[in-house]
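Quick one, T. Sequence first:
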Amino acid sequence: MPQNEYMERHRKLHGRRMDHEERTRKKEAREVKRVSEYAQNARGIKAKLFNKKRHAEKIQMKKTLAMHEEKKSKKKKEADVPDGAIPAYLMDREGQARAKALSNMIKQKRKEKAGKWSVPLPKVRAIGEDEVMKVIRTGKRQKKAWKRMITKHTFVGEGFTRKPPKYERFIRPMALRSKKAHVTHPELKATFSLPIIGVKKNPNSPLYTQLGVITKGTIIEVNVSELGLVTTGGKVVWGKYAQVTNNPENDGCINAVLLV
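Structure tokens:
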């Protein structure tokens, strides 16, 4: 193995930290302040080079924004020759047609990517880390406090294998793991017990999404193949999103509404 690939090898063997995405996001958020401070304090040739680079980046950003502009754009009609004579006050008017910059399908895909659904519960109560996680003390004299036990319902996949208990940072108890949800179809007004495929988004934290924590307002993906839903093209819909509408830790089950 080449000497410089030990980090990639370690990542493949042991994976990343559980909060890797959160730390990366925070680092990227801080980057703006770091760049701003450098821009204010840079002097001489370094300042010139930096400003030249920023200028090029801003031009590229403006071009990208103009390309993805979602406002209605106006464009001139092709000049069609009228049959008869037209009045003088209509001579200098230009025919305008409105064209959408992006098609509805692309807009829809972008909304789905951004996670903007029309959901039954648009606002949910924020849940703190102390409410979701309980500190587990370890060590000979109970001095170490790096372990956490999840106190809410969670979902883990079929092929989930626990880490050795000594090295497990986030403990998800077996009694609080859920595999099925009671999903109500808003149009059919019927409830079905459907298997959960995964946790799409927990509004409280990206870490909870990664750990599969299910709280009120969480978007989950459920297997709807047994409902017999089909697309306009005739294909059977396999997975669909649903929003959790109850507090699973209080009721002992997960109730959700299908997003149609």
